[in-house]
Hints:
Elements: E1 17-19, E2 22-24, H1 45-52, H2 54-65, H3 77-88, E3 94-99, E4 113-120, E5 123-133, E6 151-153, E7 156-158, H4 162-182, E8 187-195, H5 206-211, E9 222-225, E10 233-238, E11 240-249, H6 264-284, E12 301-309, E13 329-338, H7 344-361, E14 367-375, E15 378-379, H8 385-398, E16 403-407, H9 413-418, E17 425-427, E18 442-444, H10 445-463
Parallel strand pairs: 5-8, 5-9, 9-17, 10-16
Antiparallel strand pairs: 1-2, 3-4, 4-8, 6-7, 7-18, 10-15, 11-13, 11-14, 12-13
Helix pairs in contact: 1-4, 1-10, 2-4, 4-10, 8-10
Amino acid sequence: MSGDRPKSEASITQNSEQVSGKMVYGSHRDEHAGRATGSCAPLSTLDERILAAEQQLVELTCQLIRMPTLNPPGVGYAQMCDFLEQYLKPYGFEIKKVRATGALGDSDKYPRWNVMARHEGPRQGECVHFNSHTDVVSVGEGWTVDPFAGLVRDGRVYGRGACDMKGGLAASIIAAICFIQTHPHYAGSVEISGTCDEESGGFGGVAYLAEKGWFNPERVQHVIIPEPLNKDRICLGHRGVWWAEIETKGHIAHGSMPFLGDCAVRHMGAVVQAFEDTLIPRLNDRLTDMPVVPDGARQSTININSIHGGQDEPEQGYTGLPSALVPDRCRMVIDRRFLIEEDLQEVEAEMRALLEQIKSGREKFDYELRELFHAIPTMTAEDAPVVTAVTQAIQATLGVSPEYVVSPGTYDQKHIDRIGRLHNCIAYGPGILDLAHQPDEYVGIQDMIESAQVMGRALQTLLLRTTD
């Protein structure tokens, strides 16, 4: 599929069904799609061009889904970058492929490749950047369709990554192409990036690129990340996250004489009990003024990501029993989500104080606490230029005022804001948030069209100095 080339102009499409691998298209309505395109205001030339590009948009989404860029371990990144290079070059984009050499996760077997595409207008102006991650999570169980077939059915495109976020990537590409074709004399530049590893923290993707200056506010002024947060929402930011590892220590002994040892797993049980009795009730009482969705995420939360105690799992193929040992080590990974009203140092101090309290009342209790990763909460102001532009575009396209929300989990805005120091950044894109990482993941075709029209209108607001 990486050898496919785009049509030079968008084409009007007919009917929607996949038959024997061939697709025909038409006017689509999904039950989540909302109003029909153009029902709120007369269609502009740009709106019409995007509407006429429906077939191209659907085909592009299918092509992206058919490249299984699974992370972990991080496969297919180079092929994805090659495909996007071949797709965008005919439209006048300058392409640079960047490997995050030495970044977390990068290796010769699984290299971390990113693609940056830039189109320069003939007049000076600001840069609008659309950033999409190209990696997808594992498939999991429960699918009723092939997760990598790019199935088109009932006004939807199905597949792993359709919603999160290859549909958003495709919509931003079509929006940018149609904007450039409609307004060839625009002022400034349009960038599109396909970056890796967002699903595992983004360190081989946006974090690396931000460190290298790609998101310097002197070269990029506005960033839109087409994450699936519903087409009538603008996501201003996210809660904070603190990942840490707690290790409890014991003493090894024969399993038939546990009284001669000290069970580290039992000590970890005391930690879990303290979470249940003390920490979780305390976190439940902390609420934020941030518009976090869903409502349950407006409080502080903690998740036990994993617990590993005792002997290592036997290697594949071993069918015998484990040896009789008292475990002398137990490790727990915790995922603590905190609010903008909380301080990172206080989050860590609270956990350490809880462990010290256990230690003071439990014989032989010993532990280590290690941070694995953190990200500070971020929230772009509602009057920021990119927020204002997308707000006006949603109102014009959908006939509604957008809901401003904050994500319960982090995404690549954390690196653009924290490392790049570029605060004029939001997430906006097609797709229903609840479908991300689910079996039978899909994105609505009508949602993609209307989101592309919103992105196109935002480009007009930000990059047109005069009416072209």
